[in-house]
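From the shared-data thread, chain only:
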Amino acid sequence: MRIPRALLVCFFASLTLSLGGWSAGAQTLVNGTEIPLQHCDRLPVVILRVDKAEKRFLIDTAATSMLNEKSFTSGPTKEVHVQSWNETTTLNAREVSTGEIMLGSHSLRGISLPAIDLTSIAKACGGPLDGILGVDLLEQLGVTIDLKRSVAHLGVAPPSASEASLIADMQRAMHSCSEAFNNADTDRLAFCFDPDFVLSSPSGELRGRDQAINHFRKQYFDQTPHAQLSMSMNDQHAIGDVVWSLYDYTVESPSLRSTGRGMMLCRKSENHWYILSMHESPIESGSIHTQ
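Structure, as tokens:
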């Protein structure tokens, strides 16, 4: 699938707003990222969809997740370890395998959980409970709980298996591009960039593959020894054949050192990865003075 540049711009902007990322300023919530909590007495409860059926789960950030055996009646009995805030308890419980657990747009598949009798907890808070949503599933679902505002906040959903594979493939390609930079191999490095590549930073904007390569040659490769680049990528997300990444970088030589953070869009075309754009924000940059 080839994605038009206009759509990429919209996608890039929406991720910046929803993630907050590394830029300063207040975060903007997008529809669907907050889910109101219910209550059982004073305890927070959230509605999960377990295998397409709505279930009421008590939220307990100091415990591991479990199911109410009254709500989930199938599964073998085995010895399980249940974690609470101050101890780990060993007990016999049925293990229930779920097809899919969903909270909002976030889902987990193939999760197995212990099922025990939660009747006493349900009676204590005065309402039906189908399970306990503990810290383990909260973390996997990318959910944080705001008790003051009584909402569950959904972060960015974890990548699917196909998206994770695409991201890993892109990372390998970018490692090869970093090697080309560190070897001052301009021909190999040029092949990393889309013909319409754009590099923007506070010092200006470069447009096109040739302009970028000429800049790198004059700025970094005409030195002896030439500059070395180190880059670590994080917060990566895939849409179609495009991967969006935040990254931290350092460019260093005997005479200069520059560190900063950036955002990058890469696209896979005809089994090759091309960098579409990079937006860099230096944190520290300057010449190194030697005695």
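The domain at 5-11+160-287 is CATH 3.10.450.50 (Nuclear Transport Factor 2; Chain: A,).
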